[in-house]
Amino acid sequence: MKAEEFDQKFDQGEDITEYLDMKNAKRPGLETEHVDINFPRWMLDALDKEARRLDLDRNAVIKFWISERLRMS
Where are the beta strands (DSSP E) in 1-73? Predict the structure, then answer.
């Protein structure tokens, strides 16, 4: 299918999911990259305590807090 035909189907509100490869779909700007970072033990203990309180894992708390801070900038 040509891009113009795909765009036309989308613009007309047709269901285009059969034409998409959802297994390999990516959202630009949301790709992840592994980063190693060292924290002092007291920070990890505090992070783990907060993660348990929020019923999240440590990585989720770290990502959430950093994203909040970056949005404030």
Answer: none
